[in-house]
Amino acid sequence: MDRIKYFDIAKGIAMLAVIIGHCALEVDDFSPQITAQVVYRICFSFHMPLFFILSGYFMHPDRSFRWAKEFKQLLCTYLLSGLAVLAGVTCLGTIQHEGRAALLQSWTGAVVYGSGDLTERTLWPVDQRIGAIWFLLALFWARLLLHCFAKLPCTPIWVIICFAVGYVSSNYIWLPWSVQAGMCAVAFLYLGYLAKKYDVLGIVKRFPYVWAIAFVIWAIDIVLFGGMSMAANDYGSRPVLSVIGSIAGTLCIIGISRLFERSYVLGEALSRIGQASLAILCVHLVEDDVLPWQSCLSFLQNWFPHIPLVFVCFIVRVPIDLGGAALLYCIPKINEWFYPQLAKRAQMIRS
């Protein structure tokens, strides 16, 4: 049950980046602000790639694919979160006296299709995007594909081909269940796997100047940011820089996490958020889809006119997400879906 604490801290930072990144999108839609745009550039330059790379770091693709574990941890959590969204929009529609049947039909379509973003290239019309839990579907496909490729000769070639097919095909058609997002995510999983296999962090530790190089690359990516949304395989106007910059950003966040590890209070707080990142992601998805944040932003702006709205929104939403994740932790059996460490602990006790 030993954990690498600075990896948990890195996941905690990335999870907070997901939340404030979505706040930035909401605020920029409400009233374009330079602060929100800067926050968006920083967060979207690294947060999803970091999750995939760290997931790959702990993978063992040479072993058999654990269908039951992956189904419960990824697909069951997706389904439960989707049902929570449907219940939430139905309740909100009742309160606001909106057409519940139309809302339920629209959001059911989003849950069934599993697209992280809206696009006109779906196989059939989809009115809503499911949002952040596209990550669960994409991670399922990415892990399955990497397990398949690991058993084939020339694994790196297969990974590159998979990324290319997923990226190119998504310009013409967008398949359900985030299949193509998973096809591109295979590359990030494989990078994480290779990083562990060849002890990249050990190499970087011996040559500290690599941190400086990574920071410069990440900074250039942020300054020249052309957009990046792994949810829709959109790597922006500079896709090569986006991919390289996200890798450099991930390395920088790991380095920052090792520094934060020295601070007990900050390190422990971020580590706990990282360990609960799956639960927090699902709770965040529900409140992001259900709550009328565009309507709430005007009130928040009036209450705190001298504070950048993106930070006010973040401060309001974080307690909701952390509180919801804490409630999930208290539900027997279900908590093992959202907290993999509990499932591992239960398995060790049974064995």
Description:
This protein has 351 residues and is mainly α. Helices cover 74% and strands 0% of the residues. The protein contains 17 helices and no strands. Helix 1 (5-30) crosses helix 15. The two termini are 14 Å apart.
Broad shape: globular
Q: Class by helix and strand content? A: mainly alpha
Largest sheet: none
- N- to C-terminal separation? 14 Å
What is the number of strand segments?
0
Number of helical runs? 17
Quote the average pLDDT.
Answer: 93
What ranges have pLDDT less than 50 throughout 5 or more consecutive residues? none
Beta-strand portion reads under 5%
* Radius of gyration, whole Å: 20 Å
Fraction in helix? over 70%
Q: What is the H/E order?
A: HHHHHHHHHHHHHHHHH
Protein topology:
Blueprint: H1 5-30, H2 34-44, H3 47-57, H4 67-95, H5 100-113, H6 134-150, H7 155-169, H8 179-197, H9 200-206, H10 209-223, H11 239-260, H12 264-275, H13 277-290, H14 293-303, H15 309-329, H16 334-338, H17 340-350
Describe the structure in brief.
This protein is mostly helical. The protein has helices at 5-30, 34-44, 47-57, 67-95, 100-113, 134-150, 155-169, 179-197, 200-206, 209-223, 239-260, 264-275, 277-290, 293-303, 309-329, 334-338, 340-350. Helix content is 74%, strand content 0%.
Throw out a few tags for this protein.
single chain, mainly alpha, 74% helix, globular
